[in-house]
Amino acid sequence: MDMDHRCLVLSGRLLDGQDPAIVHARLAAAFGLEMSGLRERVFERAPLIIRRGLDPAAADAQVAQLRALGVEAESLPDSEALVWLRRGQQVRGPIPEAALTRYAQPGDQWCHDGGQQWFTWQPVAIEAPLPPPLAATVTATDQFTQATTTESSRQLPPPLPELEQQQDESSPLPPSSADEPAAAKGPLSRFAVAAALLGLLVMVWRSLAPLATLIALGALLFLYRRPLLRGRVYAVAALMLSATALFLWLAQPAPVATAAAHHYVARPLKPLAPSERAVAAEAPVPCKAQAVAPKNDEDRFLLTGQRVLTGRAQRKGDTYVAEAAVSVNGQCQPDALQLYVFRNGVFIGTALEAAASPATTKLADFDLVDDQHLRITLAQCTDKPGDCAVTTIRQIAVLPGASGWTLGELK
């Protein structure tokens, strides 16, 4: 900035004897602002530069006009070196760096415009005052001051209401956001921009959503501690995107268990082997009398192979499962049990690859959960009669295949 130019600084303090309500009303009318806007844009940020790049005459004229309204203002050399003040939780400014000694107070912190590090203000020791001038000098000085004041009063520009209509460069209106120097807005945070880009990325790769949410929260905290940096819109957008991706990622359905690659091949029901038929035929008469009578076509189909129904069967929808013994012993107890599965009245296969023998593997229970899922409980037995403690659960699915319905075991 050219050193011949001046900047207009408003301190935020009122002149002695001024009523704050009247002065605020005058300034609000002169600036064309509401009272709330005046407090937010001017007094809560004072001391601050309200005009830059003025020639000395225009700057002095505006200082006189502001003081006539009852507020303290001064014209200072304009320069590129600007600083910000932080007083409590309020950031004020910017002001020329050379004016720190005028406006900083003990306990304030200051920061270079565009910087991120705050420094504690250290007051400069005040030099001893000079001795009073001689009486003759005082008299000459007073005469010169009165003459200068009289001459200046003749050259003052029109009152502020007329300047309000002219809107020329001498108007003391505070600059809008478009008039403020770009450096005064503060740099854009790269952290916030990176968080926003990551938020877009996690909409595709949602597994990264937890990490992106933490980074977005970190960006907001980073900007909260650095009020001069811009990018809060990016940080908020990053948080919204990552939170949405996290919700979608958590709400996705769990993978459904699929059947093993091996499928039971549908095969027709075959008659018992000759030795098995002989055992069944030679069963005592009381055993035949105790046999369960068939209740439907599926049961009668099983009896064609000389099998003995146990009476345990379940039906769900179009699926029917029945238990039958392929052989019995002399006490009318089954030597081997098998589960037979039917779909729409058609036999599609056995649930067990080998019949369960009570001596080694007991078919403890089975449950047809629905028309496509069968749960089988097997108990491993020892040499001691009735000692079957360890159990195994098997899940069998009824699946449609290319050649019809078939069975598959779920893992």
Give the neighbour order of strands across the main sheet: 8-16-15-14-13
List the domain count as a whole number.
3
Q: Report strand %.
A: 25-35%
Which ranges are low-confidence, i.e. pLDDT below 50, for 5 or more consecutive residues? 134-141, 143-184, 258-267, 272-284
Gap between N and C termini: 78 Å
H/E topology pattern:
EHHEHEEEHEEHHHHHEHHHEEEEEEEE
Mean pLDDT: 76
Shape: rod-shaped
Q: How many E strands?
A: 16
Separate helix tally: 12
Structural class: alpha+beta
Portion of residues within helices? 25-40%
Transmembrane segments: 191-224, 233-251
Keywords: Membrane, Transmembrane, Transmembrane helix
Biased composition (Low complexity): 145-155, 162-171
Protein name: Glycosyl hydrolase family 98 putative carbohydrate-binding module domain-containing protein
Q: Could you explain how this protein is built, in words?
A:
The protein is α+β, with helices and mostly antiparallel strands. It has helices at residues 20-31, 35-43, 56-69, 100-103, 135-155, 160-166, 190-201, 209-224, 232-251, 274-281, 285-290, 297-303; strands at residues 6-14, 48-54, 71-77, 82-87, 90-96, 109-112, 119-120, 259-264, 308-316, 319-328, 334-343, 346-350, 361-370, 373-381, 388-401, 404-410. Helix 7 runs antiparallel to helix 8, helix 7 (190-201) packs parallel to helix 9 and helix 8 runs antiparallel to helix 9. The longest helix is centred in the middle third of the chain and has 21 residues, at 135-155. This is Glycosyl hydrolase family 98 putative carbohydrate-binding module domain-containing protein. Keywords: Membrane, Transmembrane, Transmembrane helix. Residues 145-155, 162-171 have a biased composition (Low complexity). Residues 145-183 are annotated as: Disordered.
